[in-house]
Predict the structure.
Amino acid sequence: MNDNDEKMLDTYRSFLLISELAKEESLSQRELAQRLGIALGLVNSYIKNLVTKGYVRVKNFPKNRYGYLLTPQGVAEKSRLAYQHLRYFTNLYTTTRQDYLSLFRELSAAKVRKIAFCGVDEVTEIAYLSLLETDLSLVAVMDDEVAGADFFGLRVVSLANGVLSGYQGVILTSLKKGDILKDQLRRLGVSRKEIYSASEAGYAGTPEEATLTMQEGRE
């Protein structure tokens, strides 16, 4: 992911957060992190930034809960970010489509044939469209939060069930939850060499291990 992609992702996360805060619910930062699928430390950093800029006021509640109120400047910022959000997804489609297509072609060249998607959000459908241009087969789609839902004829399953699906590689297909999902897969016993990310140009590990994995190409 280049610097421009990072900036777009930052804008997107800010938009998601300020949209959640606009609901004026009493939430802990941990709950916000879970809703947004990002690290708790990132939520804290974004909120501090919004408060410093005068977009948000914080009201304390018991038991480490907070009420977040958008200021008039915050409402204006939410509208601005909504526009940026639209532009972001226009760019996201183009870049993500190509990134996944490149990844799938690399896997195909390494004789990988069966893959699983991990994570369902706006990126997953883009990844699926790229998959249709290759000879790879999608054997499972996993996401604990939407288990049971339909994804182009496949039933979304939990990660615990998805890791038993006989894949040769797991593709991270969530923009918001990639790091979290990777950690969950590792805790379920999935090897780092079996986890791939288009945003990291292939295997979601070190560059040296990535090269070795692609050369090995599991039958």
